[in-house]
């Protein structure tokens, strides 16, 4: 249990730091130092991007800039279906696993149906498909890769979408 608490605590603290764009450089440096002392990992923060250096490799985190968008991570699989109109809110890239959070004005049921259809048409095997009133989950596998989608209705009628990609290893 201890091995999961330290990285999770670090990620949560870092996410809070990144989410506060009003922080000054001095405050950022103090926060980085506090995180490093509390977790034992090296944190490098630059604006809306941060890198956590761990024994198992780097964890790269980026959140939306002033325009409300961030780029997909380098190497994000081109065959993973994304809504046509979307804004990427945050990205985590670590050791072969990528997490992307985005929003779209499209309704959740439409995003769910288009994603399911598009992934299967692209040769992905659907492993999980669940829907309830305000949320949905889809999971796919292809060769040794996996993709998980968590969809939720936004207050504005659009959809919030979390996507995790990686290998089954």
Our Rg estimate from Cα atoms comes to: 17 Å
- Tally of contiguous helical segments: 3
Q: Provide mean pLDDT, rounded.
A: 80
SSE order: HHEEEEEHEEEE
Q: Judging by the overall fold, what is the CATH architecture of the largest domain?
A: 2-Layer Sandwich
Question: What global shape is seen?
Answer: globular
Estimate nothing, just give the exact number of structural domains.
2
Class based on secondary structure composition and strand pairing: alpha+beta
- Report how far apart the termini are: 20 Å
Tell me the CATH topology of the largest domain. Answer: TATA-Binding Protein
Please give the CATH class of the largest domain: Alpha Beta
In order across it, which strands form the biggest sheet? 1-2-3-4-5-9-8-7-6
Would you identify the regions where 5 or more consecutive residues have pLDDT less than 50?
1-5, 17-24
Describe the sheet with the most strands: 9 strands, antiparallel
Number of strands: 9
Strand proportion, as a percent range, falls in 35-45%
Q: Could you estimate the helical fraction of the residues in percent?
A: 25-40%
Explained architecture:
Helix 1 packs antiparallel against helix 2. A hairpin with a 2-residue loop joins strand 7 and strand 8. The radius of gyration is 17 Å and the shape is globular. The longest helix has 17 residues, at 2-18. The protein contains three helices and nine strands; from the N terminus they run H-H-E-E-E-E-E-H-E-E-E-E. Helices cover 27% and strands 40% of the residues. The protein has a nine-stranded antiparallel beta sheet with strand order 1-2-3-4-5-9-8-7-6, sandwiched between helices. The two termini are 20 Å apart. It is an alpha+beta fold. Residues 1-5 and 17-24 have low confidence and may be disordered. It has helices spanning 2-18, 25-39, 108-121; strands spanning 42-46, 49-54, 57-63, 87-94, 97-104, 125-132, 135-142, 145-153, 159-167. The protein has two domains: 1-59, no CATH class; 64-169, 2-Layer Sandwich (TATA-Binding Protein).
